[in-house]
């Protein structure tokens, strides 16, 4: 299945979950995740299914003044 992770195309084996996408990205916490602009709770990453052409955003906190 083809998805966009932070606007970069990725191919994941189907069926895939948010956890699979994060593993492909080698994401290191802290971060938040949205799929098609909807927030996904951390507790559901392993169960949240992805569909072909989903847009996944991995958002890192920004600090500063």
Model description:
The structure is a single chain. By secondary structure, the chain is of the alpha+beta class. It has a single domain, classed as Beta-grasp domain (Ubiquitin-like (UB roll)). The chain is 12% helix and 31% strand. It contains 1 helix and 5 strands, in the order ββαβββ. The protein has a 5-stranded mixed sheet, covered by helices on one side. The longest helix is centred in the N-terminal third of the chain and has 8 residues, at 18-25. The protein is globular, with a radius of gyration of 12 Å. The chain starts with a strand and ends in a 6-residue tail after the last strand. The model has no long low-confidence stretch (mean pLDDT 96).
The CATH architecture can be given as: Roll
Tally of domains: 1
Q: Indicate the low-confidence ranges by residue numbers.
A: none
Radius of gyration: 12 Å
Strand content: 25-35%
Describe the sheet with the most strands. Answer: 5 strands, mixed
Derived structural class:
alpha+beta
Summarize the amount of helix as a percent range: 10-25%
What is the CATH top level name? Alpha Beta
In CATH, the topology is named Ubiquitin-like (UB roll)
């Amino acid at each position: 299945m083809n998805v966009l992770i932070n606007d970069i195309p990725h191919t994941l084996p189907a069926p895939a979950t948010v956890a699979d996408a994060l593993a492909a990205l080698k994401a290191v916490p802290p971060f938040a995740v949205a799929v098609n602009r909807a927030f996904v709770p951390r507790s559901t990453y392993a169960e949240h299914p992805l569909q072909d052409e989903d847009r996944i955003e991995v958002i890192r906190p920004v600090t500063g003044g």
